[in-house]
Write a structure and sequence with these properties.
This is Abi family protein. The chain is mainly alpha-helical. Helix content is 52%, strand content 0%. The chain has three helices and no strands. The relative contact order is 0.16.
């Protein structure tokens, strides 16, 4: 089994990452709280289809 290479991100860092990738938030702290309750992985199933092709 290989080792996990991605760094661990706090909920706030996950929200900042989404913001850097183009997601808009009115309040970054509320976004972090949302991710704490829902999880990045589960939420990604919804926002993945809204990514614009050619952008990260």
């Amino acid at each position: 089994m290989g080792s996990y290479t991605k760094p661990v991100l706090t909920y706030h860092d996950q929200a900042k990452l989404l913001e850097e990738r183009g997601m808009l938030f009115e309040n970054i702290e509320e976004a972090a709280s949302f991710l704490k309750n829902v999880s990045y992985y589960r939420f990604s199933g919804y926002f993945f289809n809204f990514y614009e092709k050619g952008k990260n």
